[in-house]
Design a protein that fits this description.
The chain is mainly beta. About 5% of the residues lie in helices and about 55% in strands.
Length: about 280
């Protein structure tokens, strides 16, 4: 069972379950097209592989339409020329969403029943998971857990570490960028986040004051380093620590760790990301 809907112009339409709009086919929901870039060398056989480039995703839907004028106006109320919207696809195995630009809608009224085709383009060809995954990097250490007699002075079962760490599982078809948020509750100096799986880190030189929030995004085409304070957001990319990398989560398990030169226990660290899929 498949469910397909589209959100645009602050409205939503069900492309599968709307009465008098019968979907007869679709294209562009499978894996995106990959173009292989090669280099010719007269001294070698064949060509040399350079890289692969994923093309824009072109999506189309075809329908049989009854009560034509009513359906046409319903579609026009959602699909606006050149405007972005969100296509949502759900089936028995996976669900995802993808941002699209509406390009064209055609009606053929010279056949019965009337047919309609809708064309969309997604410049980011990957579907994203419906829910953003948000994880707090924890700095508590469990020392042991057992049934025991508790003396009056107590037993230490855990303590706070100067490092915050967590394992994150990227279930995507590709490596994905993350959003890192570091909230300072008191003075924090030189905060850093390490991806121990890839041996990469990203960090900020200098001091964060109480109430400030550092926001770092590492996604393709969306690399930012911002400090938010008092409702004002300022670009701080010039304060990146030497050797910093806008690292991504590899497919599978990633171990992330945060630390600071001082004040590590004065900060709360959140890491969020969306799983991304080649097809739904």
């Amino acid at each position: 069972m498949i469910s397909i809907s589209y959100e645009g112009n602050n409205n939503t339409i069900d492309l599968v379950g709307t009465p008098n709009l019968i979907m007869t086919g679709y294209d562009g929901l499978d894996q995106p097209i990959s173009e292989t870039i090669t280099l010719s060398n007269p001294n070698l056989r064949g060509t040399q592989y350079q890289r692969s480039q994923i093309s824009d995703r072109l999506i189309s839907f075809t329908f049989e339409v009854f009560d034509v004028e009513n359906i046409r106006y319903k579609l026009m109320n959602v699909f606006k020329s050149g405007e972005k919207g969100t296509l949502i696809v759900k089936n028995d195995f996976r669900e995802g969403k993808i941002e699209c630009v509406f390009e064209e809608m055609t009606f053929n009224k010279w056949v019965l029943p009337t047919t309609c085709t809708i064309f969309l383009k997604a410049t980011d060809p990957y579907f994203k998971g419906m829910k953003e995954i948000v994880t707090e990097l924890d700095n508590s250490l469990e020392l042991f857990v057992l049934e025991a007699y508790i003396p009056e002075e107590g037993i230490v079962f855990g303590e706070l570490s100067e490092e915050h760490s967590m394992e994150l599982v990227n279930e995507s078809d590709i490596d994905v960028g993350v959003k890192i948020e570091i909230i300072a509750h008191d003075t924090v100096t030189n905060p850093k986040i390490y991806n121990e799986t890839t041996n990469q880190f990203i960090g900020l030189n200098g001091t964060m004051n109480a109430g400030e929030k550092l926001v770092i995004t590492t996604g393709t085409g969306n690399k930012r380093v911002l400090i938010e304070s008092g409702g004002i957001s300022t670009n701080n990319i010039n304060r990146l620590a030497k050797g910093s990398t806008f690292f991504q989560l590899k497919r599978g398990t990633n171990k992330l760790r945060s630390e600071a030169s001082s004040g590590a226990n004065n900060m709360t660290v959140y890491v969020s990301y969306n799983n991304e899929f080649e097809a739904v």
